[in-house]
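Records of this kind hold a single protein each, on a pair of labelled lines. With that in mind, the following record should read easily:
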Amino acid sequence: MDSVDLRILECLKENARENASVIGSKVNMSVSAVIDRIHKLESSGIIKQYTVVLDNEQLGLDITAFVMVSMEHPRYNDSFIEFVKNHPNIVECHYITGDSDFLLKISTHSGKGLEQIANEIKCIGGISYTKTQVVLSTNKENYTADIKAIKPDK
């Protein structure tokens, strides 16, 4: 990945719907060259998907919480992960180091909704401990690393 690829990624990160001619003018390339590079970034897996970012508060999902989960034994991990993948309010799940095994990000409509989800999690077999932290406000929320932090190949 060279500096041109990184500039293309920056354009797409800012607006994934921006057309190749606009991107081409920003990176000094022809439309066909930009499209070719985007296809290569997609086929290499650097671009995983295109999506829309929704405003959870406007959708009525006013509560965001992080739940740390400790498992009794790793043999329970697969069933826990399956539960997580199928739960619509669990938006992120990370296997982590430290005192807990998993870190979940939950978006829900109310404190009562969070209580219900927390109870569902606690009922899963193999869970020994949970700790929930409710988000009061969010000051930064990026969905990928800053392109400027990536060093281009020479």
User: Anything to note?
Assistant: Strands lie at 63-71, 90-95, 102-108, 127-134. The chain has a mean pLDDT of 94.
